[in-house]
Amino acid sequence: MSGTKLRNLAVATALIAGGAFFAVKSRRGGSEIPPAGPAMPGLKENINNAAALTILKNSGSVTLTRTGTGENAAWTVRAKDGFPADIERLRTTLIQLCNLELAEPQTSNAEFYPKLGVQEVVVLPKDASEAAKKNGAPGSLVEVKDASGKTIGALIVGNAADIGNATLDRPMETGQFVRRPGATQSWLTRGTIFLDSEPMNWIDRKIAGIARERIKRATIKRAVGTGPSSPGAHPEPDLSLSRKDKDAPAFDAAGMPSGLELKPNEAVDQPVQAMAYLGMDDVMKDPGGVIGNADPAATGPNAAHPTVTQFETFDGLIVTVKTGFRDGKWWAQVSADTAADAIPPAPDVKDGEKAPTEKRTDVAKEAAAINKHAAGWLFAISQFDAKRLSARLDEMFAPPQVEAAPPAIGPAATPPSPESGTPLPKREAPEFPAPAPK
């Protein structure tokens, strides 16, 4: 190949290799580039007016809305019947949006938006093909509105980009490509933000939790006829655990059998373990008629059952968890109260002495907080937790091992004889021919 052809090939290769970068960075000659600044201008100044946050992805969307103002303000997740949002995560996201800065202009040519992930975001139907999901916009559209529905700020957040051409004057930065809806100019930001469109990820998934060292007793009563009495509700608990004091390392189970061993992965105190952190997979307004329903496909000792499980702490807090099955999920209803003796009567106070404060005031506040959080709601819990909350004592133990009897041995065999059987044939010596004479 001639030198001219080699030189032309090298030039063509270089153009192909740098084509994507050139395409992304190119702009029409003489076009005016908007000035850099906040990615969502005006959001920081109007953040107290924010009343709705919406995030759209091709996989789905979520909207958080605010009700009330000032101390009475509350944010809820619209797709989950208005259940309270995780306020800390919301606050963090809004602060990140306020602080997101435009660092460097990119392409204004819509043909190259897919390279940056800043094309228009459209929520795809649930039955969309894999090809449609793959070719859909990879980014997110985030929008903040005020109480009147006016948009305070909106942004399409695309792919993350590692800027590798670092110098002493310009250190390496990590940013994301963004574009304001309706604008042609795309930008690289300074810093990144993660936006999630899954509604349950905007909810604090903790339903309730009681530390093990606080629990004094726990009782389980299954709601269907699996207990020691006739079918239906029964007064006897399927499991009753108790401790004398906080220092006792283990719980005593009423009716504990002797000489039996627990099955693998079974523990007498498993409901206590479940209550240490009871989390939700989903949430909905309580429609009624769910608690007490059994899983029609649940069979065997490892199945979960609808139950009423109650926990009492040494300081007088009582938490009750009722469960039921619907639409392939176990749902829990949670309520709290204080024991009758949680707040002792006021002692006699002599003149001039100050009456002691009630010891259990904090417990009453704790019960009220649980009820405020859980009243009127059903929480979907894992089948594993549903099983632990419906544990039954006699199902935790392996059946006793019965030693197998040795096989029976018959009488010793005796050789056959004329008296005891058919006589053996007489053996005769073989005849050999006489040797030939010499």
List keywords for this structure.
single chain; 438 residues; alpha+beta; nine-stranded antiparallel sheet; eight-stranded antiparallel sheet; 8 helices; 19 strands; flat
Give the SSE layout.
Elements: H1 3-17, H2 19-25, E1 50-57, E2 60-67, E3 74-77, E4 83-84, H3 87-99, E5 101-105, H4 113-116, H5 130-135, E6 140-146, E7 151-162, E8 174-179, E9 186-190, E10 206-208, E11 215-222, E12 239-242, E13 252-253, H6 270-276, E14 278-279, E15 282-285, E16 307-313, E17 317-326, E18 329-338, H7 361-374, E19 377-381, H8 383-389
Antiparallel strand pairs: 1-2, 1-6, 2-3, 3-4, 5-9, 6-7, 7-8, 8-9, 10-14, 11-12, 11-16, 12-13, 15-19, 16-17, 17-18, 18-19
Describe this protein's structure.
With 438 residues, the chain is of the alpha+beta class. The protein has 2 domains: 180 residues, no CATH class; 172 residues, no CATH class. The strands form 3 sheets. A 9-stranded antiparallel β-sheet has the order 4-3-2-1-6-7-8-9-5. A hairpin with a 5-residue loop joins strand 3 and strand 4. The chain is flat and about 130 Å long. It starts with a helix and ends in a 49-residue tail after the last helix.
